[in-house]
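Methods, example record. To illustrate the input and output format used throughout this study, we show the complete record for Sigma-70 family RNA polymerase sigma factor. The sequence lines were provided to the predictor; the line carrying structure tokens was produced by it.
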Amino acid sequence: MSGDLLQRARSGDRDAFAELVEPYRGELQLLCYRMLGSLQDAEDTLQEVLLAAWLGLDGFEGRSSVRTWLHRIATNRSLNALRSATRKPVPAPTPAVPAPEPSRLGEVTWLQPYPDLLLDNLPDQAPGPEARYESREAVSLAFITAVQLLPPNQRAVLLMRDVLGYHAAETADLLGLTESAVNSALKRARATLQATRKGDRPALPPDSPAERALTDRFVAAFTDHDVAALIALMTDDVWVRMPPLPFEYRGAQAVRRFFTTVFAQDCTIGRIIPTRANGQPAWGEYSRDPLTGLLRCTGIVVAAYTTAGISELTHFETTMAPHFGLPRTLASA
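The corresponding predicted structure is encoded as:
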């Protein structure tokens, strides 16, 4: 069937081309997201990938599968985006409220969450035999953040080898590198990611009783602005991040100072709406507008749960709300 679609697409049948690439659209966008760390950049790059595939159909010789051919295009287009001078992040905005001195200034500010709704629509494509990461771990915010620390070629090699599971020779062919260059880049990339790992604390299974219980306690503490209760739910080495702001807070004491300062401002959270991002619990955050009384979305919070407690909280800007089906405003309850 795919051979017939390919022939029809090559003859100029756009409907046949759409049917040919549709099974891979979701995983191509996810590959671009893993490379770029930004959902909006991934969506834009996916459109470039599909256009390049349409224009390059005559050059597809069938020596690999259509899926592998599309992976090649997506990876190379993502590399082009990473190397483009136009993709530099704009200066970070001023915080909406005064924040305490951060533990450090983060290296990764070009980061956006990925709605679980898009993950639910992915086909059941098992990774190749060389994969080292499970699908869930390879979309977590911790993994995506760590990948953004890698140089472009190392990023591509790691994703091809350890996430998609291509052999070294296949990866070399896909990226136009020698096999020795692939092996060298992979070794360096693995070392960088290993240095970012936080021990071996396992994540709580999604929608498990333990995850639901921790969520109930977090929501209660967060909406009550109970700093002591929040800190009690967190690991000692918890991280709080706020991309695109470079501020990062690490450790219970630094996070305590952060929430004490934020909750003391006149911007209390009136309601949070549950969603999921990157396979993790998340919420749309709403604060009351003192003039209109409406609840306005002030961001998206994504949590990382482990068996020891909450290990990360990441706050994203309101620009991501539409991607999660979250309204900008809510009527006052």
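Annotations derived from this record:
The chain is about 45% helix and 15% strand.
The mean pLDDT is 89.
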